[in-house]
Design goal:
By secondary structure, this protein is an alpha/beta fold. The protein is 70% helix and 6% strand.
Length: 400
């Protein structure tokens, strides 16, 4: 192993990459654009959604409930934009045309039943054309009436238990009142909160761009870079020189590592400057990233040496990378994926490394809970690199 040869290959690669504008774009500009776009759209806490609700108060007793709904706010934002209709058919027509998210009809007798302590109901119409909008509107409306019902029920219970205490002997009311309260409210939930550290959404997308760099850019950089050496005849000359195959490969691996990790550091700084939040990995976090990088370098080199064509290598890398960006949970949260995609998240090395990286650096799990995965990931990466070296050796012999 000749240090001078390794350094020569390293500096040669870095100079060539810096001169290629398209390579610089895909390695540096594109990931920055991705982070700015994804972080700007989804990388912040979303404000409460305002539901456009059309109400048809067929009973005057509902006007107080409608006013209460109109004035509900969360974080200074109204939860409902209420529009009153005299005609239910007109309100439903507006709902079908997309002008409303829900139509709430308060039938006649609503106020009378409510004040008399009887059961009452409302009729709610939704448009299910858009499942996501439907779920949001349904959750907001049902949440409102669930809370309103609890408040009314609580006031009724106070009145009822007060009456029972007044008309029943004390020894009897002491046994009856708890039974009545337990029947009306079988389970009581006591809510408590803790002040934990909440991860900012932009950090998820910062990790996503890191994953894209390892999955796509790393394989492309080392695979196509090695094939260009073949096309230019450089690899043939290196094979005939005192420099060994190990010198060439180490130089390539080092140059790829420097470029990719330099790109990641730029992304870390950009996230801090633009979004005010970033990830500076711990030593274990860097180890996960380095392991993912070595796996991708080995896979990219193996593909390039097996195909021996830049065009075919690029096609193969795209064919592998684009589906796995989603199936391995790199650009989308793994929790949103179907069950059949679980093996890609848990066993594809880049996906698994990124999942553990997020758990460690964003959600702050204990290092001991993910450290064991690093051993298996390192073993897999080493195996892929050894296969790549074997294919490389076979290719070099054919050149000779």
């Amino acid at each position: 192993m000749k240090t001078r040869a390794i350094k020569g290959i390293l500096w040669k690669d870095l100079k060539e990459i810096s001169r290629e504008k398209m390579t610089v774009f895909w390695l540096l500009v594109f990931p920055m654009m991705w982070l700015l776009i994804m972080g700007g759209i989804w990388g912040h806490t979303s404000p409460p959604v305002t539901i456009k609700a059309g109400v048809v108060p067929q009973d005057e007793g509902a006007l107080g409930v409608v006013a209460y709904m109109s004035n509900m706010t969360l974080n200074g934002r109204h939860l409902f934009k209420v529009t009153t209709f005299d005609d239910g058919d007109k309100a439903i027509k507006t709902l079908k045309s997309g002008g409303l998210d829900a139509v709430i009809i308060f039938p006649r007798g609503f106020g009378r039943n409510l004040t008399a302590g009887l059961s009452t109901k409302v009729i709610v119409y939704y448009d299910r054309s858009d499942p996501q909008e439907y779920q949001i509107a349904r959750g907001a409306v049902e949440g409102f009436f669930s809370g309103f019902s609890r408040e009314v029920g609580g006031e009724r219970m106070k009145a009822l238990t007060g009456t029972l205490k007044d008309i029943l002997p004390e020894n009897v009311s002491m046994r009856i009142v708890p039974l009545v309260e337990g029947t009306a409210k079988p389970v009581s939930v006591e809510e408590k909160t803790v002040s934990g550290e909440k991860a900012k959404p932009v950090l998820f997308f910062l990790a996503s761009v890191m994953g894209i760099q390892f999955l796509f850019a790393t394989m492309s950089l080392i695979g196509n870079g090695t094939l260009r050496e073949v096309e230019k005849g450089t690899l043939r000359r290196i094979a005939a020189s005192p420099a060994t195959a190990w010198d060439f490969l180490l130089g390539k691996f080092l140059s790829t590592t420097v470029v990719i990790f330099g790109s990641i550091i730029c992304l870390i700084i950009l996230s801090r400057l633009v979004f005010g939040a970033t990830i500076w990995p711990s030593p274990l976090g860097w180890a996960f990233l380095l392991t993912a990088g070595f796996f991708s370098m080995g896979l990219g080199l193996a593909i390039a040496m097996a195909t021996r064509s830049i065009r075919t290598t690029s096609a193969a890398i795209n064919l592998i990378s684009w589906p796995l960006m989603f199936l391995a949970g790199i650009v989308v949260p793994p929790s949103t994926l179907p069950n059949w995609a679980g093996p890609f998240v848990n066993y594809f090395p880049v996906g698994r490394a990124l999942k553990d990286f997020r758990l460690l650096e964003i959600y702050h799990v204990s290092p001991s809970s993910v450290a064991g995965d690093l051993i298996s990931l390192a073993g897999t990466s080493l195996a892929v690199i050894l296969v790549a070296i074997a294919v490389y050796g076979w290719t070099v012999k054919r050149l000779e």
